[in-house]
């Protein structure tokens, strides 16, 4: 764990230095090929940083933040688009580039943010962070009994783990950004269990930073040239390929193609869904039917194509081993602290006796 914290400090310093360089380069060079060439060293650094970590938690998080979202933001910056702009302050630029955040645009009239409204059910309030952080250890503990579980029970456990981990991770990032910069962010997850269609699930409810980056970088350009269906398919294809890359970073396993197939299938169904929706007079299921149908389709295809890649790679075993290592490190730190406390009390007792 000490090695991981040291790597985190070095990675943080490297990110700040690289983003200072990227901001200066973007300010001096016009959008285009020259700016892209100038930003390529920062892109390469973002792809290399996850290799500095030995645990799946740090390696996977840094790969998602930097290798996926960060590199796409830098590529958009090279084209003069996207959330990054050299006019931003350095802290704002660094956080925008290296973390899964999308800052809320200021409005002229102050209004209570939905992120801060418990009734809205959106955002990452302190209660959600605490609940997610409290439940995740129980899920990890339950992995010890996976051999006695049915496949459905194991999939439900994986699903809960992914959802709560995302809530906890993004909520913690939101709290950090709000505390440091005092700025509000767009919600990153919006009750995906209420999605009434695939477009609703992927575009407006689940891990919203990903579609926010893929829209201007993939969907928009492809749609303008080849139409909406091609834009949707290209977006899901890129998402599938990047998920394969994330799995490689996390598990050191070569891509199987299953995860890409999962997203290509969802892309085709989402494109078909959009084609159907454009016909105003055609039948549409009521929301009470559409929501469970959507969840069953997402869950069923996930069981078929997405989760087997995690099981084959032994992700649950890796997480369990790292958690055991963390517990052992905490126990060792506790014993060391108790020994120091005992030595201090013994020393003060001798001084008083003298």
UniProtKB/TrEMBL annotation:
InterPro entries: Wax_synthase (IPR044851), Wax_synthase_dom (IPR032805), Wax_synthase_Magnoliopsida (IPR017088). GO terms for cellular component: membrane. Residues 186-264 form the Wax synthase domain. The chain crosses the membrane at residues 33-53, 65-84, 125-143, 155-177, 229-252, 289-307. It comes from the Eukaryota. Keywords: Acyltransferase, Membrane, Transferase, Transmembrane, Transmembrane helix. Its main location: membrane. It is found in: Membrane. GO terms for molecular function: O-acyltransferase activity. It is a multi-pass membrane protein. Belongs to the wax synthase family. GO terms for biological process: lipid metabolic process. Residues 104-124 are annotated as: Disordered. Pfam families: MBOAT_2 (PF13813). This is Wax synthase domain-containing protein.
